[in-house]
Amino acid sequence: MGLGHFGGGVAAARWLARCGAVVTVTDLADEHVLAEALAALEGEPIAAYHLGAHREEDFRQADLVVVNPAVRPGHVLLEIARHGGARLATEIELFLERCPARVIGVTGSNGKSTTAAMAAAILRADGRRVHLGGNLGGSLLDKLDQIAPDDWAVLEISSFQLFHAGRGARMPEVAVVTGCTPNHLDWHGTQAHYAAAKQRMLVGQQPDDLAVLNTEDPEVASWASLVPGRLVPLPPDEGLPPLAVPGRHHRLDARLAAAAALGVGCSDQAVREGLASFRGLPGRLEPVAVIDGRRFYNDTAATTPESTIAALAALEGPVWLMAGGGDKGTPFGELAEAIARGARGAAFYGAVADRLAAAVLARQPEWPCTAVRTMAEALRWCWPRSRPGHQIVLSPACTSHDQFQNFHRRGAHFLDLLAALADPRNRYGVSEE
């Protein structure tokens, strides 16, 4: 249910079909929207594709429904399937059930991808064989035959995936929680529901498992009593090497990753080497261009206010911000204050443009900002106001789904706009194309 664009649905469909299951792929999107995912399944023994709508009879007849994590709680078709005796599971739950390796799972509102990648880098520096996946790096389900019991799997796991996990589902032997601030409230409904989903990774652990909590987050620090196994403390910041990626938030990610690695026996030397070798992830405050002395950063993976606040704190010198997108129901008060304090000006675009601009102007009525429709218009506003030595950063603070299929496509569009801007023939205009 929900083939999606990030590979989990494709991997689940492929793996189940190859295992001999009669697989029906159903998605509200049509063939055009799902073209890339459908191409990845070409030649696989899929029994049926029902696209553009879901069919109730598919759910009444199912033995297993593999749920795309984005499907909302209480969906009527899931209830129909459940009442008919079907099992509901996610792709990552199927993987965890069958994965022979030990697993480190990383969840939280911000920093999941970077923390998971840093942990994998440390484990590799310690000589371990590591498989990095989940929300970061794609599904590992159809790579099960390549994973050995002595290996490690490092998974980024979302609140959606944890919510949909069945009762008694295997949870990672090492659970890392990077933080818990208001997020995805359009999906979860309340912050309590969102926090409860994150907590499932802890309460589902076994007594001999390990947990690493961001104790600098008061909400997460209060979850210590939920941990059934051993709580691994964060190492001090001064004990870590300099990082190639800027910002205090990346220092915190490194401490979380180091704690997980040290907890499973990695050496201090491996921590130093692994973190020193980490060069950052695409779309996470990634320097992507210098045009006429202006430095551009692609922070498209910043889908929460906290991520954009951290980006502004990490960058030194005048910053022109491009932010906006879809509305997840998150409050913008702290973000507006950070923008007015940390940026020279901002262009807000997309569905939340007016709300973001109003939040900033309510605090500083004369502050330079605008509300526009598209990212191209936002860049067209920032460019002539910037000067050599300034920085222009795409750090949306919001979901991409109002205008893009996902945040990867959003980042790719930003790079296309910069390529056009770098062309001297187009220097003073940014094409919508």
Description:
With 433 residues, the protein is of the alpha/beta class. It folds into 3 domains: 8-89, NAD(P)-binding Rossmann-like Domain (Rossmann fold, 3-Layer(aba) Sandwich); 92-277, Mur-like, catalytic domain (UDP-N-acetylmuramoyl-L-alanine:D-glutamate ligase); 286-426, Protein-Tyrosine Phosphatase, Chain A. Helices cover 37% and strands 16% of the residues. It has helices spanning 8-18, 35-40, 56-60, 76-83, 91-98, 112-125, 159-164, 185-188, 191-203, 218-221, 248-263, 268-277, 305-314, 333-342, 353-361, 375-385, 407-422; strands at 24-27, 48-51, 64-66, 87-89, 102-107, 130-134, 152-156, 174-177, 210-213, 230-231, 286-291, 294-298, 319-324, 345-349, 369-372, 391-394. The chain has a 6-stranded parallel beta sheet with strand order 6-7-5-8-9-10, sandwiched between helices. A 6-stranded mixed beta sheet has the order 11-12-16-13-14-15, with helices on both faces. A two-stranded parallel sheet has the order 1-2. Helix 6 packs across helix 11 and helix 13 (305-314) runs parallel beside helix 14 (333-342). The protein is globular, with a radius of gyration of 22 Å.
Helices and strands, with pairings:
Elements: H1 8-18, E1 24-27, H2 35-40, E2 48-51, H3 56-60, E3 64-66, H4 76-83, E4 87-89, H5 91-98, E5 102-107, H6 112-125, E6 130-134, E7 152-156, H7 159-164, E8 174-177, H8 185-188, H9 191-203, E9 210-213, H10 218-221, E10 230-231, H11 248-263, H12 268-277, E11 286-291, E12 294-298, H13 305-314, E13 319-324, H14 333-342, E14 345-349, H15 353-361, E15 369-372, H16 375-385, E16 391-394, H17 407-422
Parallel strand pairs: 1-2, 3-4, 5-7, 5-8, 6-7, 8-9, 9-10, 12-16, 13-14, 13-16, 14-15
Antiparallel strand pairs: 11-12
Helix pairs in contact: 6-11, 6-12, 13-14, 14-15
